[in-house]
Design a protein that fits this description.
The complex is a heterodimer. By secondary structure, chain A is mostly helical. Chain A contains 6 helices and 2 strands, in the order αββααααα. The chains are: A mainly alpha, B alpha/beta. The interface between A and B is large, with 48 and 48 residues.
């Protein structure tokens, strides 16, 4: 936890759930990631408890600018999977026998 | 911020990732800070058992804001069984924090304050035997066979609806600037939750980012609550919101800095200072134009994004719409998406306002009635729907303040014939009915 707090100094955060920064995204694009879904999987953008409700559009804009693609093209393969909101795992482990 | 993001997540009674913006205070509640990665507490023994319940309904309404409540009420008036699911402990959605008066004619709640409209709907819904309201409950996904998973307090519901009205609302936009994760950087809607709904003063001095109606109204509300508003910054060369709201804050001497944006915030552990910068016509910062303000709050009122994840998961065909704030599903005039019997209404269908959300909710519900009710009721519902559609498109939405949203909604509305073709090309993953 201490490390995460330190990391928050002087950075621009894009994904608050997983502490993904603008620099993380830029570095990943420089590394050759040329697909937004791949970028999401690599950085876990939108994989946190808010499920991308803050970060996806910001990240897609940065990716669109860097790749010269349009934002609708960037998001065309965007997939959403359940659970679409954070839920406690106990709901799936208990009560199933009812 | 408004119940959609992760900004307010804290550990509550040992359970991480709890949205504290919607957690009611109880005796013995243990709240701990949460920063960065958390490790789940596997020793957390919640003794209460989980009940599994199956529910069959005619109409499932996802989200109890203005669109959802009007849809539920309308469907129930025609005799349909309705279940409304809402995450909050009180229904009303964003209406709950709207302490300002609505404009327009009395039939559309003109002259009433947002939270009063929510109270009125709440009363009507509770007195209806046809409507079941599930508060503190979330829809977490949709599954084969058109089953919808809902988690409520100690209950796991599996809902089998004939029709779903998705009125899932919107999330506040976030902004990228230096140290944007410092506590004190908040959504304008988040501040409205804290201040208007819970009656807590959010800080001492604030800077508001964005001069749309939300930014202007919240700036005025901050002043009323005794918070000093140092400035409002707007990246565009003109004020985004209505003149009447801008005039109110200007009368208090709050400067509105046009063509300015936030460059950074500074502080040790929380916001102490904000740095703003002028931008040129291409939105690039002008070096040397930086100004600093001593504030403990930076409010982001930079727009909303439709929360359409539920529709995406269902496999509804989506389109990016800058006018409407993001990805939204294509729909017919009666608001059915490419997933048969899945309707959309309110801000989820594209950012607009509460009054249009109410009308959209009614249209969606009436279309559902026309499919599910007996012939005489169906006929009446169709007539009423056409009347509301006509008023919405040809009267209400012709107001210049809704021109952009109207254009956006036109671009994502297709005919029933076109929708049938889309359904063949992009078959949805689930179907209801």
């Amino acid at each position: 936890m201490g490390e995460a707090v330190k990391k928050l100094d002087n950075v621009v955060i894009i994904c608050r759930c997983n502490d993904v920064t603008v620099n993380d995204i830029k570095k990943a694009i420089e590394m050759g990631i040329d697909d937004f879904e791949l970028l999401r999987k690599y950085l876990r953008l939108g994989f946190g408890p808010c499920q991308g409700r803050s970060c996806i559009v910001l990240a897609a804009r940065i990716f669109a600018r860097a790749s010269g693609k349009k934002i609708d093209e960037v998001l065309s393969n965007y997939r959403v999977r359940p659970p679409i909101v954070p839920v406690s795992a106990r709901y799936f482990t208990r009560g199933a026998e009812a | 911020m408004i119940g959609k993001c992760s900004s307010c997540f804290m550990k509550v009674n040992g359970l991480p990732n709890v949205k504290t913006c919607r957690e009611p205070v109880k005796d013995g509640l243990v709240i701990e800070r949460q920063a960065g990665w958390i490790s789940p507490d596997t020793n957390n023994e919640e003794s209460s058992s989980v009940e599994l319940r199956e529910i069959d309904v005619d109409v499932l309404v996802v989200g109890g804001g203005p669109a959802g409540l009007s849809a539920a009420l309308k469907a129930s008036e025609y005799g349909l069984d309705v279940a409304v699911v809402d995450e909050h402990f009180k229904i009303g959605g964003q209406l709950l924090k709207q302490t300002h008066k609505f404009f327009g004619n009395v039939e559309l709640f003109g002259g009433m304050r947002g939270f009063q409209i929510a109270e009125e709907y709440s009363k009507k819904l509770k007195s209806s035997e046809k409507i079941r309201v599930l508060t503190r409950s979330v829809v977490y996904g949709v599954f084969r066979g058109g089953l919808v998973g809902v988690i409520g307090e100690n209950t796991h519901y599996v809902v089998k609806p004939k029709v779903v009205v998705g009125s899932t609302g919107a999330a506040e936009r976030y902004l990228d600037f230096l140290n944007n994760d410092l506590p004190g950087v908040v959504g304008a809607g988040g501040v409205q939750t804290i201040m208007n709904e819970y009656g807590v003063k959010p800080g001492e001095s604030a800077l508001v980012v964005g001069s749309g109606n939300v930014g202007l109204i919240v700036a005025y509300q901050l002043l009323q609550a005794g918070v000093a508003v140092r400035a409002i910054v707007e990246i565009l060369p003109e004020v985004g919101g209505w003149f009447v709201h801008a005039a109110k804050v200007r009368r208090y001497g709050v400067p509105i800095l046009l063509q300015h944006t936030v460059k950074a915030v500074y502080g040790d552990g929380r916001v102490r200072e904000v740095e703003v910068v002028a931008v040129d016509e291409n939105f690039n910062p002008v070096p040397g134009s930086e100004k600093r303000f001593k504030v403990d709050l930076v409010l982001l009122a930079v727009g909303l994004e439709p929360d359409t994840r539920f529709f995406s998961q269902c496999g509804a065909v989506m389109k990016w719409s800058p006018e409407l704030g993001g990805l939204v599903p294509l729909r017919t005039l009666d608001l059915e998406t490419s997933v048969r019997n899945l309707y959309i209404a309110g801000d989820a269908s594209g950012i607009e306002e509460a009054t249009t959300a109410i009308m959209e909710g009614q249209i969606a519900a009436l279309s559902a009635v026309s499919k599910l009710a007996d012939r005489s009721k169906a006929g009446r519902a169709e007539e009423e729907m056409e009347k509301i559609c006509k008023f919405l498109w040809e009267d209400y939405r012709t107001s210049p303040v809704l021109a952009r949203a109207r254009r956006g909604k036109q671009l994502v509305t297709v005919s029933r014939e076109e929708m049938e073709k889309i359904r063949v090309t992009y078959p949805p993953r689930v179907s209801f009915g």
